[in-house]
Amino acid sequence: MAKDKSGYIIAAAFIGPGTVTTASVAGANFGFHLMWALLFSIIATMVLQDMAARLGIATGKGLATNLKDISDKPAFRALFAVLIVAAVGVGNAAYESGNLTGAAIGLDAFVSIGTGNWAMILGAISALLLYSGKYKVIESVLVVLVIAMAVVFFVTLFAAGPQWTDMLSQAMQPQLDVDTITMILALIGTTIVPYNLFLHASLTAQNYAGEDKAESIAASRKQSVMAIGFGGLITLVVMATAMMAFFSQAATMDASNMGQQLEPVLGEGAQWFFAAGLFAAGLTSSITAPLAASYAVCGAFNLSQDMNSRAFRSIWMAIIATGVIIAGMGFKPLSAILFAQAANGLLLPVVAIFLLVVMNKRELLGPFKNGKASNLLGALVVAFVVCLGAYKLVSLF
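RE: above sequence
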């Protein structure tokens, strides 16, 4: 059996600065009233990532290639290719700006030269790491740093004496209104990341090539549920620590004081540790986002998916450059990160609908096509996110 770690790579990819920031803001501003949105996101992520992984293993191809091959007609194939590029390209550019901004906030806490300047430096570092072709080694180191930060959040949560009764009471009083809709979309967008569907399918297609498909799918599913579940638990703990530090308190959370939620354990060192973790999370995600975009676009246009090919490199370079430009345009850090997550929430239905279509192709997947349960869960996810997006648009007018 292949030594596949794609489930953990996916979990590491969505535990980026967007997750830390979004969960912190949600906990600080709304307490546990939005816990339902996070739980929905975790379950939905498991469902959709399972489909993507199963598709990659069963066909030996990435999601983009399979989506483009839905129809034999040239016009439809071209349309799908354009839609893939639009959805993943635009989404990843927004996401990349959030990743770079989050990491830049972390570094600026150590050496203050401005988040825009740090974003340029981080973009260059990400480009060099991808150009080397050794991204997995670097990613593994950064994942360890993110896990270390997660451990501190866990310790802080229990050391601070959490108000379990208050948490349960708030969780049992879910909120969904004009004031919370952007935050809900951000929580969904930071957990169910569209580009992770493309990345997961491509990784499993490569890592399980030549293996028994049924056994591979079972192994991949078990690993994904554990990894994504752990990632969701980390997000929940971040939300809880922010809730205890800021919700219903006089202090208001912003980019400069997010680390205060760690002070019960780390004291004055909390801000620095939080900054280091935010940097690690941001750099990890700023590598995986352009990587996924390269897999998706190359698959859509039948280009080489070799990391050293010119086309593959050109795509991730364009994503990183766009992210650096957006990050350096002077948006408020928290606003830029939350916008990136909300944009992902709005782009999700586009990718998910296409995934549902291809997962029902019996001639393509045979016994590994979607069953009734997968289709029902997938349809519910898409319908809910579409309704949220429509509600958000209507509320603007």
